[in-house]
Write a structure and sequence with these properties.
Length: 77
């Protein structure tokens, strides 16, 4: 909340770096960490690290919540 206020942002999604936004979109499309890693040409470990960070920033707890969040934010249809 402090980061949002200090940067004049309304939504915690705006705090995510571009790579984490890409990852949330791909995960919401029901791709596995391995599939996301292949698409982005990174290791599955890197995807998992980004996934954990974005889940912490957005206070999400599992993949279902990532999908629901993405639908509500119109990241995916």
């Amino acid at each position: 909340v402090r980061q949002l206020q200090s940067k004049g942002l309304q939504d915690s999604y705006d705090l995510l770096p571009p790579r984490e936004k890409e990852i949330i979109q791909l995960l919401a499309e029901e791709k596995s960490n391995k599939e996301v890693a292949t698409v982005l040409d990174v290791s599955p470990y890197t995807v998992e690290t980004h996934r954990l960070h974005l889940m912490q920033k957005l206070t999400l707890h599992n993949t279902a919540e990532i999908v629901l969040y993405a639908v509500r934010k119109q990241i995916i249809a």
